[in-house]
Amino acid sequence: MVKQYKRLRIVLGDQLHIRHSWFSTKDADTLYVLQEVLCETNYVKHHIQKIAAFFLAMRHFAKTLKAQGHEVCYLTLDAAENGQTFATNIKRLIQAHGIQQFEYQLPDEYRVDEHLKQLCKELTIPTAVVDSEHFMTTRDFAAHLFEGKKRYLLETFYRKVRTRYQLMMEADGVTPLTGQWNYDKNNRKKLPKNVQIPPAKQYLQDASEVVEMLEQMQVATIGTIIPDRFDCPVTREEALDILQHFNQIRLRHFGDYQDALSERHWLHFHSRLSFVLNVKLISPLEVVESSIAYWEAHQSEINIAQIEGFVRQIIGWREYVRGIYWMKMPDYATLNYFNHQAALPAFYWTGETKMRCLQHAIQQSLDRAYAHHIQRLMLTGNFALLLGVHPDEVDAWYLGIYMDALEWVELPNTRGMSQYADGGIVGTKPYVSSANYVDKMSDYCKNCQYDKKKKYGKVACPFNSLYWDFYDRNGDKLRRIPRVNMMLSTWNNKMSAEEREKILEQAAYYKANADHL
Ligand code: FAD
Ligand code: DLZ
Q1: How far apart are the CA of 268 and the centre of ligand 1, in A?
Q2: Ligand 2 pocket check: which of 12, 32, 75 to mutate, most ligand atoms within 8 Å of Cβ?
Q3: Which numbered ligand comes closest to the C-alpha of 84?
Q4: Which residues, 6 or more positions from 79, have their beta carbon under 8 angstroms from its beta carbon?
Q5: Full-model pTM
Q6: Which atom of ligand 2 is nearest to the CA of 14?
Q7: Which of 265, 295, 328 is the last residue in one of the domains?
Q8: What's the total number of domains in the chain?
Q9: Is-contact 351 400, C-beta < 8 A?
Q10: Does 93 lie in the same domain as 167?
């Protein structure tokens, strides 16, 4: 006789939130289900480490729930009874266990939200949806805040959230500590040679079983993994531990070198919290409260610019892009402001390029399923935008390759911030640069086969001619953006016709040979 339950609750792979009110009471009539399904492993080609991290985290979470006395059904990808979509499995479990009510938490991705809404329409039993109790703002917070506004400024959003939660505020409740909201200008330093980068803390896992199962199930993946030495935090204890490591070791220089690029280290002073945050092993509020408390106790060693820069990423950018996502989906996923159509160069999948900066950022992404923000924005993103790659291809790459990639956060960052395909909803200008910026912020150019100073000729850095080509081909669309007018005017009025022609010829050559740069 199959055990009967009254209620079935699905826990999605990015809803591993043990402090959710669902789990505060044990109920023998409630069955929780976690599912490894092909519809999630295959909707985009993921990095093998991303799938391994999700499955290991889900498996640990199921064990924790069981240990706490909850009733749990865990479907592995290779289970004979696995129907390979959330809906198919839910329908089967409802039948098998005589379920009378189905419940889920608000999913973060539009695609999954639609899938579960459709499922509920098809079911004949009552259904209910509850909040995921993770974010600091609701799905529609940004839509309300920006109602009737022409521009959706991060700064407006950030100040609102900081005030609402009284984070780093003066006693009057409305003035930011020290009177200054933002230390952005202090966050743009190049990494000096004499600054030691502390080693990243490792969280070694044995993912052999998962890797073997993915092979058996013929799941196509990107990148590499060392199965028995896979390095990623996948439990709540590890999430809390990496937060402590960040507070104690990396926070002190977080803001200073947030925008720096260097081949000396893969993590610099970044936190590597994005995966554990995005699967909800840890909450944004507990992260910022813990980091602020650490800073308060160590103000003689850590200046305010470091902690403010960090808090802004979490309660500003992270919540803000989610708000924009829910405000603008599903149309947002189809925007292509510049009508870019080029293919993503083959080297994005192999790392085989002579451009030192891209080689390093892509190889690191393939090796670790991680790149920090400026590698994503100003190297791989910048280059794809200069080349005019179709945003669908750029999105698919970002959504697949990074361990932390979930559409609600990936899409506004990639299509919006990095590719300006939304025409300026998220970013105030396209983030493009020539070799000059890369050289200013990094140590790549000195080891590169290309010449950072040259715009044309055999060894000219491709960033240079493609940068001006971007202005040339998009002039009409860029003219209305005050922050880029100066560059447009340099291109049109300060360069000779002969110089412009040589640059455009060089860019045309690079575009035609993009796979072999
Ligand atoms: P840290 O630098 O230590 O920052 C701390 C935390 O702040 C991060 O863990 C993250 O939760 C948050 N954060 C920082 N910047 C952003 C941002 N722009 N948007 C949202 N949250 C932010 N982040 C993802 O979590 N998933 C993605 O799929 C993703 N795709 C991106 C694609 C592009 C093109 C760009 C430019 C950025 C993307 N980001 C994404 C944002 C950012 O790059 C990553 O959050 C960060 O690199 C993760 O590393 P970390 O945890 O060490 O971050
Ligand atoms: C990313 C991912 C992958 C690769 N596999 C699964 C899975 O098999 N089962 C699951 O519940 N979740 C998975 N995830 C995360 C999902 O994409 C995420 O749960 C939804 O997109 C909800 O936002």
Answers
A1: 14
A2: 12
A3: 2
A4: none
A5: 0.97
A6: 19
A7: 328
A8: 3
A9: no
A10: no
Outline where DSSP puts E strands in 26-160.
Answer: 30-35, 71-75, 101-105, 127-130
Pair 31, 99 in one domain: yes
At CB < 8 A and 24+ separation, what contacts does 183-187 make?
183/255, 183/304, 183/305, 183/308, 183/309, 184/309, 186/255, 186/256, 186/305, 186/309, 187/255, 187/256, 187/258, 187/259, 187/305, 187/309
CATH number, position 321: 1.25.40.80
Centroid of ligand 2 to alpha carbon of 12 (angstroms): 6
| Pair (374, 499) in one structural domain | yes
Same domain, 115 and 159: no
From first to last of its 517 residues, the chain has per-residue pLDDT tens of 899 999 999 999 999 999 999 999 999 999 999 999 999 999 999 999 999 999 999 999 999 999 999 999 999 999 999 999 999 999 999 999 999 999 999 999 999 999 999 999 999 999 999 999 999 999 999 999 999 999 999 999 999 999 999 999 999 999 999 999 998 777 778 899 899 999 999 999 999 999 999 999 999 999 999 999 999 999 999 999 999 999 999 999 999 999 999 999 999 999 999 999 999 999 999 999 999 999 999 999 999 999 999 999 999 999 999 999 999 999 999 999 999 999 999 999 999 999 999 999 999 999 999 999 999 999 999 999 999 999 999 999 999 999 999 999 999 999 999 999 999 999 999 999 999 999 999 999 999 999 999 999 999 999 999 999 999 999 999 988 888 888 999 999 999 999 999 999 999 999 999 999 9
Tell me how crowded residue 27 is: count the other CB atoms within 10 A of its CB: 14
Residues 229, 114: one domain?
no
Amino acid at 488: L
Ligand 2 atom showing the smallest separation from residue 50 Cα: 4
135: in domain: no
In terms of domains, do 11 and 126 share one?
Answer: yes
- Does ligand 2 lie within 6 Å of residue 329's CB atom? no
